Every structure is written in structure tokens, then in C-alpha cells.
Task: inverse folding
């Protein structure tokens, strides 16, 4: 755990969804029987292209929702890896799995602890409302969340400042009273530059980014979060 020892003055905990609460690798792992030795390669390519398309569409001012972007990225990844898909049954299966991604093991209990301690809790994600509703229901964490916020409310993907402002507006607390948790370093930096307090859940041991803003804290999993907030 790097950075300062704790976060003080926090009233709300806001979480990124994909890679932070939900394991996007679980979609390909569930389809390993059909993907064979290409299952491991599919996940990073699919994810990287998914994020690239959000940024490139934003730069062109040509927004499409995250469901379309996810499908377009999957098509690119399947073609790049030479994965044959006949009538598209594998594509459909992978997309269906993306709706019900596995939550990381600690997530339900951590959210329960934070909610019980009096923190407002929310998801703030690129995902569409339907995608997020399916993931939340599958993980059984709906009762531990006060808000599930989709970027579709502002029509822009992260790291647009309007996305982080959405959390401030809906939670009704100042940016300095919000702890934002994400596994994506670029997301943490952008939220920090906006004015949120930030915790980088660096699940994969990434190197730090060279971008405006900086994480207040770095942790390996969300298990460490309650103690940092005095729970």
C-alpha cells in the first residue's frame, strides 16, 4: 500500500465497474471450451480495443454506447486472433457473458461494510444502464449501492470531466468528500485532476501513468479500502 495512511472527510465511495468490481476476464474464461488456447489472448486485446474505441469516438465526437463499443471491439479481437465463429454463436455467447461478469471475491462484503458504516455508495461506469443493471443483479450487490451511474446520462465516456461531475451532482457532496476507486490508472488520474479523492486498485501491478492528477492511495485489492476509510 503506497501513499498516505488514510483518507479523511470522505462521505461517499464511488467505484468504477469493469476491472474494479467486475472481472472482465471472466467472459473469455467461461468460453474457454470454444476459444481453446486463444482464450488468454482474447481478454487483453478485447479490453484494450474497447477502451481505445471509447477514446477515439470521443475525439471524433461520434458517441456510441458501451454495448456497441464492446461488440465492435470483440469483432476486432476475434478477427485479429483468427477465431472462427460460424454463425456468430461464439460472439453472442461472449457478449452474453459480459452482461454477467464475475464480481471479484471481496466486492460484496466490502460494499456491505462501507454501506453499514454510513458511506454513500455508487458505481460510475462507461457501461450502459442495462449492462450495469445485469452485472449488479448477477453479483447480488444492489442492496449495497445507493446509485448506479452510467456515462450515458451525459453522453460522454471517461475521462471526460462531465462524467466525474455526474457523481458530484447525483451524490450531492463536494468532490473532496468522494473517494473514487478504479483499477484503471488513467481513470484515477482523471478523477484526481477533476478534484475527487482517489484510490488506485492496482490489481495487476501496473506501472504508474504520466498524466495530470495522481492517486491519493494505491492498493492491490479492495480488501484494504475499509481500513483506509476508518471502518
Result:
Amino acid at each position: 500500500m503506497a501513499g498516505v495512511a488514510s483518507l479523511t472527510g470522505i462521505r461517499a465511495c464511488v467505484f468504477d465497474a469493469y476491472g474494479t468490481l467486475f472481472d472482465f476476464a471472466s467472459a473469455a474464461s467461461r468460453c474457454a471450451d470454444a476459444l481453446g488456447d486463444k482464450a488468454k489472448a482474447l481478454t487483453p486485446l478485447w479490453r484494450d480495443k474497447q477502451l481505445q474505441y471509447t477514446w477515439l469516438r470521443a475525439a471524433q465526437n461520434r458517441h456510441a454506447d458501451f454495448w456497441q463499443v464492446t461488440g465492435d471491439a470483440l469483432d476486432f479481437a476475434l478477427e485479429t486472433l483468427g477465431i472462427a465463429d460460424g454463425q456468430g454463436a461464439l460472439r453472442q455467447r461472449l457478449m452474453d457473458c459480459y452482461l454477467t461478469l464475475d464480481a471479484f471475491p471481496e466486492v460484496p462484503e466490502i460494499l456491505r461494510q462501507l454501506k453499514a458504516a454510513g458511506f454513500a455508495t455508487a458505481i460510475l461506469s462507461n457501461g450502459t444502464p442495462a449492462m450495469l443493471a445485469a452485472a449488479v443483479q448477477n453479483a447480488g450487490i444492489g442492496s449495497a449501492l445507493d446509485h448506479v451511474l452510467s456515462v450515458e446520462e451525459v453522453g460522454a465516456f471517461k475521462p471526460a470531466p462531465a462524467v466525474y461531475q455526474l457523481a458530484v451532482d447525483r451524490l450531492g457532496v463536494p468532490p473532496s468528500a468522494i473517494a473514487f476507486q478504479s483499477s484503471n490508472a488513467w481513470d484515477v488520474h482523471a478523477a484526481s485532476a477533476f478534484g475527487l479523492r482517489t484510490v488506485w486498485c492496482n490489481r495487476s501491478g501496473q506501472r504508474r501513468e504520466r498524466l495530470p492528477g495522481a492517486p491519493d492511495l494505491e492498493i492491490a485489492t479492495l480488501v484494504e479500502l475499509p481500513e483506509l476509510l476508518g471502518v
In short: The beta strands are 2-3, 12-15, 22-23, 102-103, 120-125, 147-150, 178-182, 197-201, 217-219. The domain at 2-23+101-228 is CATH 3.40.50.1000 (Rossmann fold). The chain has ten helices and nine strands. The two ends are 17 Å apart (CA to CA).
